[in-house]
Amino acid sequence: MLAPFEKASTLPPRWYLDPALYEREVERVFRREWLCVARADQLPRPGSYLALDLLGEPLVALRDLEGELRVLSRVCRHRAMPVVSGRGEARALQCPYHRWTYALDGRLLAAPEMERTEGFERERCRLPSLRVEEVAGFVFASFDPDAAPLAPRLAGLLEAIAPYRPAELVTTEPLVFEHDWNWKVLVENFLESYHHMGTHADTLQPFVPASGTFADDAEGPYAVLHNPTRDGAPLPSTFPEAPGLTPAQRGEFLVCAVFPFTLFSLQPDSMLWYQLEPVAVDRFRLRIHGCVPAAALEDDRHRDALAWFRAFADTVHRQDIGACEGVQTGLRSRLAEAGRYSHLEKALWQLQRFLRERLGAEE
Question: Residue 260 class from Cβ within 10 Å (0-12 exposed, 13-18 middle, 19+ buried)?
């Protein structure tokens, strides 16, 4: 596991099965790193909000009335009732239980019938907030107040994706799944295209063959995997492409990760964002969002194209479901053990290195 990529082995099976190791991942990795909670376009105006759960924490991502992005706890400071659910727009957050009301920066504005409570100070009671950073249109949050800024550590990733202009894309309604496997099984499957020849033999392999794919060298908490088409032909475009792309960029799609589990693929005309919510060592929720140019949502002529895009994403993921379920079953075997990486799996080794650095040598 500690060897250079050319000599490295995969993670041992227990890394996908051990509940105690998963809890260490939660405390040492998930709660200390930056996790994507939304896309900025999902919060388009002051007052826009989106409720979510992350690592068992009820949260709300929003734009306050000054337009600043924030991620707050949505647990009322009185009796722990969630103050908001779903998504929408509001000028304040009001708990439906006892009508405590909070500003969009977390300050407590009103607490009915609390004036006779000795020592209660409204100005000292507010919804806890997380660190927030917007990067390439993604809204990241961290539970760690001392987490190093994210964008400087993603310089290579941001350079690679900049021509595709991901921040300008609009997020559509997701496909929603619940899966009974370890979160790393999905991340690793996403980060290698070696499996195109088997799992996606009739969908991706014919025009993006596994043998031509490769990952960039990366020193930061990210991976970039290039998927060029056969013979460099342009990818078929469903929507208007990002302007100014080179022929090489039009002839590939990028598969990207911000570790631990922010995943997206960028095509010349669109993006797929995989939003993971780990729940247990062998369970996570997944939302697959299609992100497209605004023109595709404003013009009815793109309606059929949007339906096709969604259906294709669903087809590809359902092919991946069979592969990932098989991997998780095999990992439970008492005869399973770590294997060797193919040269097409460098991004998996990059993820492994990231986890080893954060979990410590005792793992």
Answer: buried
* pTM (global) more than 0.85: yes
Sequence-ordered list of residues with C-beta below 8 angstroms from that of 72, at least 6 positions apart, any chain: 59, 60, 62, 106, 127, 128, 129, 130
Is the CB of residue 274 less than 8 Å from the CB of residue 266?
A: no
pLDDT band of 362, cuts 50, 70, 90: low
Q: Is 109 helix (H, G, I), strand (E, B) or coil?
A: strand
Distance CA 159, CA 38 (A): 21
Q: Does the pLDDT value for residue 317 go beyond 70?
A: yes
Strand residue runs (E) in the chain: 35-39, 48-54, 57-63, 69-73, 87-89, 93-94, 101-102, 108-110, 131-135, 138-142, 170-171, 175-179, 214-215, 222-228, 252-258, 262-267, 270-280, 283-292
Across 146-239, the runs of DSSP E, i.e. the strands, are 170-171, 175-179, 214-215, 222-228
**In whole angstroms, what is the distance from residue 41 CA to residue 290 CA?**
13
User: Angle formed by the axes of helices 303-331 and 183-190, to 10°?
Assistant: 120
Residue 330 has which token pair?
């095999």
Which is nearest to 108 in space by CA: 96, 90, 124, 120?
A: 124
Nearest to 64, CA basis, from 90, 82, 87, 41:
90
User: What is d(CA 296, CA 303) in angstroms, rounded to the nearest whole number?
Assistant: 8
Instruction: Note every long-range contact of 58-65, with CB atoms under 8 Å and residues 24 or more positions apart, other chains counting.
Output: 58/82, 59/130, 59/141, 60/84, 60/93, 61/37, 61/139, 61/141, 62/104, 63/104, 64/103, 64/104, 64/105, 65/91, 65/104
Encode pLDDT of 336-351 as tens digits: 999 999 999 999 999 9
pLDDT in tens, 255-300: 999 999 999 999 999 999 999 999 999 999 999 999 999 999 988 8
Provide the pLDDT for residue 33: 98
Query: Rounded to whole angstroms, how far apart are CA atoms 208 and 228?
Result: 6
Specify whether the CB–CB gap between 3 and 9 falls below 8 A. yes
